[in-house]
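User: Some background: our group keeps a shared notebook of sequences we're curious about, and every so often someone picks one and asks for a predicted structure to add to the entry. Today it's my turn. The entry only has the sequence so far, pasted here. Could you supply the structure so I can complete it?
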Amino acid sequence: MLLPGDRIIAINGREIYTIDQITSAVQGSDSSPIDVSLVRGGERMEIELTPAYLEEEGRYLIGAYFQAAAFTNEIASLQPDSPLAAAGLNPGDRIVAVGGKPVKTAVGIILALDRDLPAEELALTVLRGEERIEIPLPTAGKTADRLFTGISFIDLGVDYHRTGFIGGIELGLAQFTGYIRMMGSVIRGIAQGRVAAGEVLQGPVGIAQTLEEGVKLGPSVFFQLLAFLSLNFALLNLIPFPGLDGSRVGFALLEWIRGKPIPPEREGIIHAIGFVILIALMILVTYKDIVRLFR
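Assistant: Of course. Here's the predicted structure to add to the notebook entry:
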């Protein structure tokens, strides 16, 4: 079985460099066993896992969450105004249980909070040096994300491997198409009402927060986030909405179909109206980002 901190280096003999490759290998297994090569505590190991299909999620799972860096349950830093600092936790504390149930990683803590919320109060079991103490955490009206505001955990570091020129191109293309599919899935979710637009749209404040998290995870994750944001901006700019470059392409096509130009004054008014709407939308999204900071 997999343990927190395991590093997946190959599946079925194929080297693994990204989380997307793990996902593809698991989803393509069709419930057949997969051979996993991993590094645990500095030693290479070979194990066999059989993905299980989860009907409610519509995908195969192997009972693990993957991140570019594995975060432990030890607090690295706390902002003075964060909920956990207000409850009495300090940097260096190790959260070993939530509501009496053991946790070993930062992800485990979040999952435990999600499991027990909503609640008026939850008990955190903390190791402070050699002392084991119980700390009550007020949670009334708070989500797990809000409780984790202003905190960072110690990670186990990130391993970097060179893929070679051809391998790098293949990974880059795979990530690019993965980003496109992800964006298409989010847009479909918004159109179908399954995803709230306010939860996925971010303004300058939200983008800054996302990049800050990327910096904490290391340069590789940061530059991947930067690339994803750049791709987002590029594709959004191609939407045929007045004020965006996509609308200028639309006007050019319309002029070509009509065989005569659109009066510049009329086109300018349309673009101005679209620009005002875009600015209003940006202000609204930024306001929601700021509200989310203090929620």
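Suggested note for the entry: The chain has a mean pLDDT of 83. Residues 7-61 form a domain with the Pdz3 Domain fold (CATH 2.30.42.10).
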